[in-house]
Amino acid sequence: MTDLEEALALLAAPCTDERFFQRALKALALVTQCRWAAFGRPSANEGMAEAIAFCDLKQSIPGFEFNLEGSPCEIIYQMRYPDTHLIYPNDLQQRFPNFQLIKDLGAVSYQAELILDNDGFPIGHILVMDPLPQSESTKSREFFRLLAQRIGIEYKRLLIARELAVHKQMIASTRQLMSFVDSNYRYQVVSKGYETLFDCSANDIIGKHVRELHGEEVFTHHLKPLLDASLSGQSVHTQTLIHPPHLDEPLHLNVHHNPYIDEQGLVLGSIVSAHNITEIQKAKQQTEYLAFHDALTSLPNRLALFQRISSLINTPQTTKALAIIYLDLDNFKEINDSYDHLAGDEVLQQVANVLNRMCDTSEIVARIGGDEFIIVHNFAHQDIESRDQRLLQFCDTLNHQLNEQVSLNGSSLRLTASIGYYWIPPDERDISALICQADKSMYSNKRKKQLNESI
C-alpha cells in the first residue's frame, strides 16, 4: 500500500472517538512526507492557541497550548477565504526566530490549511512541519483541503457530543423535571425529578415512548404538539397538563422545549425542562374565581353580571326575549336581628340555591349585594300579554319556592321577596340603565306590598 493509499484509508475510516484526529494527522504526515502534523485552534485564553492533537511519526507528544504571537499559526488566522493555505518551504526559523517550538523541534519548513465553519469563520487549522525543506504539490494541497473539511466536521461533531454528554449528566443529576426526548418521542435521559414524580427508577423510563409514560390523551393533546414544534427547530415555552397515573389530579407544568441540533442542522431531539406550578395555578384560578363570584353564595357578582349581560345583548336573539328580574328579600334585617349574622348568611346561601334550581344553566343568577339578587331569564317570543303573564307566573313561583324551601333550625322562615322586572329592548346597550329599570319596578312592587300589608 502506497503512502497515499494508506492516508486515504485512514481518512475514510469512521470517526468513533477522539483518536480519529491522531489517525487523520498521521495520514497528513504520510502524504506530505513530513515528520510532524498538528490540529490546532485558538484557545479560550486570549492570544493563545492550543494543539488539540499533535502527531510525531517518531514519538508521541500530547496536546499543548502555545503563544500565537510570533508564530506561523498567527499568520494563518489572518488569512481569509479563498486564501486558506500557507507554506514556508525552507526558511521557517529565519522568519520566526523567536518561536521556541520551532527551535525545539528543529523544523525548517511549515505548511498549513485554515478550517472554516459554514459562515466562513476560522475554527482551527491543520499543519505539517519537517526538519527538511518542503515542496508543495497539487496532490498534497488537495489532500490538505479535504482533510481540513473532514477534521472540521468531526471536530464540530465531537463538540456537540461533549455538549450533549454534559447536558445528559446535568439532566440525570438534577431533581428538577428535565429530560432528553429523541425524534421518535422516546426518553433517552431523565432527571431524578422524573423518578420522584412518576414513582419509578430512571431505568424504568429510559427507552419508553412519551405516550407510555403519560397516556394517549395527554400525549396527543398536550405533549406531542410541543415536542413536534421543538423537533421542527423551534424553542417553545408554554404551560401544559400532565396526569401521572398514580396521582388523583393532573399537574400544571411550566415547560421549556429546546431543540438539540447537530452540526448538519438536523434536530436530534428535544431537551425538556419543566417546573410544577400546580399550586400557583390553583391560587391563580381561585383569585380569578373570587374576582367574578360572590364569596358567600358562589353566585356571579356584579362584575360578572355586567360582563355576561353585555355578551347576551350583543348576541343576536332570534327566538328568545330577555328579562332582567330584580329580587330584594323582604324583612331580611329582622332575620339578622332575631338570630345573628351567621344565620343571615345561611339564609342567603339557601336563597342562592333556590334561585339556581329555578333557572336554566344558560340563564344568569347573580348576587349584587346585601339581600339583592338578579336573574336574567329567557322567554320564548310571544305576544306581549302572554309574555308578561308567563313572567309574572315565574315570579310567583320564585316567591312560593322561597317561602317553602328556606328554613332555619328545621323551621320554615316563610321568606318572601319583592320582585320587579324589565324586558331588555333589542337596541338597548346601557346595562346600568337596564338594571335601574328593573330596580324601579322592584321598588314599586315593594311599596305596593307594604301598603297592602298596612291596610
UniProtKB/TrEMBL annotation:
* GGDEF domain sequence ranges: 320-455
Q: Which InterPro entries match?
A: Biofilm_reg_signaling (IPR052155), GGDEF_dom (IPR000160), Nucleotide_cyclase (IPR029787), PAS (IPR000014), PAS-like_dom_sf (IPR035965), PAS_4 (IPR013656), Rev_trsase/Diguanyl_cyclase (IPR043128)
A matching Pfam family:
PAS_4
Gene3D superfamilies the record matches: 3.30.70.270, PAS domain
- Highest taxon of source: Bacteria
Please state what the protein is called: GGDEF domain-containing protein
Name its species.
Answer: Shewanella colwelliana (Alteromonas colwelliana)
